[in-house]
Structures are given as structure tokens and as C-alpha cells.
Amino acid sequence: MTGLRFDLRDPPPGAAALRAEVRAFITEQESRWTPEVRARSWMGFDRDFTRAVGARGWIGMCWPKAYGGGERSFLERLIVLEEMLAAGAPVGAHWIGDRQSGPLILRLGTEAQRAKFLPKIVTGDYAFCIGLSEPDSGSDLASLRTRADRVEGGWKLNGRKIWTTFGHLCDWMIALVRTSAPPEGGSKHQGLSQMLVDLKAPGVTIRPIRDLVGEEGFNEITFDDVMLPDDALVGQEGAGWAQATSELAFERSGPDRYLSSHPLLEASLDALRNDASAAPALGRQVARLWTLRAMSTAVAGMLQDGADPVRQAALVKDLGNDFEQALPHAMRGLMDVDAMPETMRRLHDYLTQITPTFSLRGGTREIMRGIIARELGLR
Amino acid sequence: MTGMTIAAELAEQVTRALADATDVATLRAVESGAFPAEAWAALDGLGLAAALVAEDHGGAGLGFQDAMPLIEALGRAGAPVPLAEAIAASALLAAAGITPPEGTLTFAAAGARVPCARHALHVALADGATVALYAAGALRIEPGTNIGREPRDTVAVTGAPVAQGTLPNAWGSEAALLLTALIRAAQIAGAMQAALALAVEHANTRKQFGRPIGRFQAIQQQLAVFAAESSAVSVAAAAAARAADQRGLANAAFEIGCAKITAGEAAARGAAIAHQVLAAMGITEEHALHHYTRRLWAWRDEGGSERFWSARIGQAAQQGGALWPFLTSRDEESAA
Ligand SMILES: Cc1cc2nc3c(=O)[nH]c(=O)nc-3n(C[C@H](O)[C@H](O)[C@H](O)COP(=O)(O)OP(=O)(O)OC[C@H]3O[C@@H](n4cnc5c(N)ncnc54)[C@H](O)[C@@H]3O)c2cc1C
């Protein structure tokens, strides 16, 4: 069960100073954030805010300076992420680029790709989205059918992606697509590749999908003979599956997997500060939060060390999703909705509707538990 | 980093010594009231009781965090010998300026039931910040047990202490409670690993409908939850111990409480899953599982239950201003 080992990490030197810096920045910005903005957490898209964060050097913090990065550690970056999420800052316009698209380009991209994309992610000029899911391929992702065929001077892309968060607001997608048929009798995980897709290219049609809150967050994106240049390919042709799954430790272990409801916990604590009968229930939430934070920090330390803690990430995501998902209901148990102060009620109302997504996005609960079960030797 | 290597080595040693000297029969004997003298001798021979005592007082000078893996290892074997108690008691005595005695030693907060008092040569009792060391002859002991059928005895003082001392501020007036919470949280982590291993082994061998039950997703998903909870307890116990090293035991009450809540909740969830997976077989006296699950249930209540700690943690949070700054202000940065 070595895949389930966690080693504690202390915050890096200078952590408190960096935290204070981020907090001061948030204090300047937060007057514009309604409770709904805060409740959206990293699903809140605000390009101006992202540009301001970029100007402070807090996007691409761990990347080389040559590409506009800050050459800081993962644990320093974690401090910025934690502070942003705890405050409910609308970080969506840079979240994906900073968390996974940029790191992927840095690791596997060509020199030209790094020079073209990374500096613009850092400034907030390029926002990225994730092109994995398709209408007929969700959890069984490798069954996807969108294809890029080699043509003179590049690739021709056809197919459809769905549930693409902020596809309508982003500039680029990294899409996982089929570039060759799986070998006869071979695994469907072969023959997949990752492609950089310019969402403004001819043949790309983006249709926002309204969600249960009444908002347009995710999209259906259709590709009709979209011409991609040769250098749209990221990494190796045919190695897309391995590349995409190696992103998952980055995608699944962060504080975005347990802090999505945090602004509600703060508001609840404020409202219940003098209610002795609420103390035990609040204490349980705080204890859980404290434990999850130690686990998530441990995973950041492993990433810093260059390990690939993909199983630990699945485990922290599953525990974290349970926590953030149960929070609105738990707080509702401490105070009737009609008695809640307005901010708390609006956070509660929004989060109640959106919490089902927490254990879906980034891979479902059942898929996370399947990964852990495999590590236990059960499958 | 070297500290962690020492910690891992000690845990290895304890695991090996326990494997050589104890098995399920030892747990049965303990539960019927016997003292596993040979096992105790084997483990005591490793000289670990003084693990947390400073080197200039004849100990190994390890930190709490260094000791967690070895206490987890004890939990993994069902804690057949009261070594965790001896380690914590020695630390408590040394902190109060008392040289820890040789041989079986246990401790408790005054008024609380004492683990294994009836088998101990010496008992340390902490009344607030005052620690008194008694020889067995100075105590009247009324035997009792917990759900794990481990000795949890009521003691009345009938004679004078061998020595008496006062804990420094860093240890505070709740040191016995905090030490108990910390060692039980680590033992819960270990016992959960043992129960999980039994459940996984059963899932891979028991066949129904023509295949091992571990091939059924319903079983896999439950055991995955168990594994996640088990990891959470290990991390929580280690993080609480780290806080005690960094800030002193008394100032780590918040972290120790959080760890004990996490451990208690996880213990309940894990024990329930293990029994569901082992079904009727796991209910039998013959199967080893109940030795672990009954200890898990019992240890939840020792050193403060989830109810006890969550009320305190909740109050601390209510009085601590905004939660996030409160939590992060307790971080200790690593050295530059
Ligand atoms: C808010 C939100 C944002 C998203 N953003 C993006 C995005 O930006 N880009 C992107 O590509 N995708 C995105 N997704 C899609 C997300 O990745 C998928 O929803 C997820 O992978 C599940 O796929 P599905 O919805 O097709 O469900 P399905 O795979 O059809 O699953 C339905 C149910 O069956 C269960 N199930 C499926 N297979 C198994 C199995 N083998 N064992 C046990 N149970 C199983 C699932 O756990 C689930 O409960 C987003 C989703 C949400 C909700």
C-alpha cells in the first residue's frame, strides 16, 4: 500500500509573509464579490481579477523565469491557492492554465510552445479549458471519438467535447483526441494524443449549456474540419493517455478539492459565534478541515519532490469532496435558513445547488474509490 | 529528515519484536486478564520506554512525531503490551523532573481509569500540573476493562508517592489527557491498518457467486473509504505530534483534539465497514477481527471522545475570529 503513504510537510520559510501579502491583495479586491461570486469559488471567471493576480506574480509561480514564472516552490504556490479559495476569490480564468495546462506544456511542450503559451498564461491573456469529456465518454474517457487526422501541414479535427467549463470564455483548449485507431485487439488507451486547440479557429462552434442554477458555466464544443497546425500536438503522438493521466495528481490533490464551500463555513461560524449548542458540530467540521489541509499539503510536498502521488491525490479528492459537499447540509442543521444572516443564506442557497458537482468534476467519487481499491489489490 | 528515518527504523524494530513475541493468542490472553510477560520483556528490552526522555536524562531524546510510527505499529498489533503508556508516562515524569523507573509503568490523569494499573510496578498520576509517581504497593486497585477487554483499572492512593514534581508550562495542566489522546489516535491509525488488511485479505479469498467478493464494486468502494479514513488518521496523528514538538504539548491541544476527533470518527466508520465485509465470519470469537474493532471502539473514548473534543474545538473556533486566519496562524514555518 505504498501508494497511500503521506509524509507531512511544514510551510516553507516566508510562508506567513506571503500569506499576509495575498490577504492584503484580497482585501483590496473583495468588496466586488457578492456571496454568489464567493460560492462559485474556482468556478468564478473574472478576467480582470486574473490579470491583477498575474501582475502580482501569482500565476505560474513555479515555472522558470524565462517563461514569466516565479521559480517558487509548490508549497509557496499552495499558500496563494489556499488564500484565494478560503476567500472565495473568482480564480476561474487562470485556474486551469496554472494548475494543469501550463505545467503540461512546461513538461512536454516544445521550446516554441513554451515560449508562446506560458508567458501569456502568466499575465492572464490566455485562459485554458479542459477538453476531455464527450457526449458518449465520461468516466470511460478512453472510449472518446473526437479525432485529429494527419493532413498536409497539420491535423484536421472533427468531433465533439462537452461539459467544457468556461469553453465560451477561454482562448485555448487542450483536447484529448484520437490520432490513430487502437491496434487490432489492443487497448483503446493507445492512439490518443493531446492537442492545443485555438477556440477562435474556423469550424469551432461553442454552445453554452445552462446549469441548474441558471448559469452558463459549461459548454458543448463541436469541431467541424478544424485545421490545426503541425505544432498543435503536445508531447508525443499516441501517448496522450499517459500524459493526460499524469496531469491528474496536479488536478485532484489541491485545496480546490476541499475548500469549495469554505466561505459558507466562515459565514456560519460568524453567525453562530455565540451559540454554545453549535460548538460541537462546528468543531467536527474544523477538525476535518484541519486534517484535510495536512493531507493536501503532504501531497503538494510530494509533487515538489517530483513524485507522482496520483493515488494519494484520488484519496484526498474523495475525502475532500465528501467534506465540502456535506457542509451546506450540516450548517443548515445548525440554523434555519430563514434565520440565517443574508450572506450566509445566499452562500448556503447557491452551494446547496452546486455541491453535487463536487464529486463529479475531475473524476467521480466512484472512479476515485476505484483507484484506491486498485491500490489495495482488489482489482 | 534523519528524524523520520529514525522513526521508521524504530517502527520496524517494534513491528518485528511484536511479530516474534505476540499474535492473536496474546490478545486473547490479555483480554482474559493475563499479562504477556514474555512479550513485555522482548519489547522492554528494546529500551524504547525512554524514547521521549531527553538524552541528558538517559533517554533517546526523540520528538513526539518520531514516536508516532512506533505507536502506530503497537496499534497494528492490537497493543498487547502497555508500551505506549510506558513511553508517555516516562516523558511525563521526566518533564516533571522525576527519573522514570525501570519496568512496567503506566499513567493517567487523576480520577481517570488507569490502563493496566494492575500489572504495573509503577503508576504516574497527574493532577493538573502535579505529577506523582507511586509504587504499586501504595495503590488500591480495582480492576475494570474497556470494550476491548483491556485492563482499565480504578486506583485509590493509599500510600506516599515515590516522587512528586511539577510540569513546566509547556506541558500544562492537561498533559495526561493530551498524551492519552495522542497515543490513542496513533494506535487507532495502526489498528485501522490491521483491520483493513484483514478485510482486504478476506475480500480477496472469500468467494460468492463464483468470484472473490473483492471483485464486487460495492465491496471495493467500501474498502476504499476505509483506506482513505485510515490514511487520514495517520496524517492527523503525525500532524498533532508535530505541533506538540513545535509548540509544546499544552499549546498543541487544538491539533491533538482535531486528530482525536478524526481518529474517533474514522474508527467508527472503519470498524463498521470491516464487519460488513467480513459478515458473519467477522462476528465470531475465533476470527481475529474483533480484537481490533473492539479496541477501535474503546480507544475512541480514551483521551477524550469526539463529543468532548468537538465541543472544545468548536469553542476555540468560535472565539478565534475568522476561521482561516485562525487555522493558518498555527502553522510553524520550516527553517530557511
Ligand atoms: C461542473 C462540472 C464541470 C466539468 N468540467 C469539465 C471540463 O471542464 N472538461 C471536461 O472534459 N469535463 C468536465 N466535466 C465532466 C466530468 O469530468 C464528468 O462529468 C465526469 O467525468 C463523469 O462523466 P459523466 O458525467 O459522463 O458520467 P458517467 O461516466 O456517465 O457516470 C454516471 C455515473 O455512473 C458512475 N460510473 C461510471 N462508470 C463507473 C464505473 N466503472 N464504476 C462505478 N461507477 C461508474 C459514475 O461514477 C457516475 O455516478 C465537468 C463536470 C461537471 C459536473
UniProtKB/TrEMBL annotation, chain A:
Keyword Oxidoreductase: yes
UniProtKB keywords: Oxidoreductase
Keyword Oxidoreductase: yes
Domain Acyl-CoA oxidase/dehydrogenase middle: 129-226
Domain Acyl-CoA dehydrogenase/oxidase N-terminal stretches: 17-125
A Pfam family recorded for this sequence: Acyl-CoA_dh_N
PROSITE patterns xrefs: ACYL_COA_DH_1
PANTHER family for the chain: ACYL-COA DEHYDROGENASE, ACYL-COA DEHYDROGENASE FADE34
Protein name, per record: Acyl-CoA dehydrogenase family protein
Organism: Roseomonas alba
TrEMBL record, chain B:
Cofactor(s) recorded in Swiss-Prot or TrEMBL: FAD
Domain Acyl-CoA dehydrogenase/oxidase N-terminal: start-end pairs: 12-87
Pfam family, one: Acyl-CoA_dh_N
TM helices/strands, residue ranges: none
Residue span, Acyl-CoA dehydrogenase/oxidase C-terminal domain: 180-305
Alphabetical list of InterPro entries matching this protein: AcylCo_DH-like_C, AcylCo_DH/oxidase_C, AcylCoA_DH/ox_N, AcylCoA_DH/ox_N_sf, AcylCoA_DH/oxidase_NM_dom_sf
Keywords tagged on the record: FAD, Flavoprotein, Oxidoreductase
Assigned protein family: Belongs to the acyl-CoA dehydrogenase family.
Protein name: Acyl-CoA/acyl-ACP dehydrogenase
Upper classification of the organism: Bacteria, Pseudomonadati, Pseudomonadota, Alphaproteobacteria, Acetobacterales
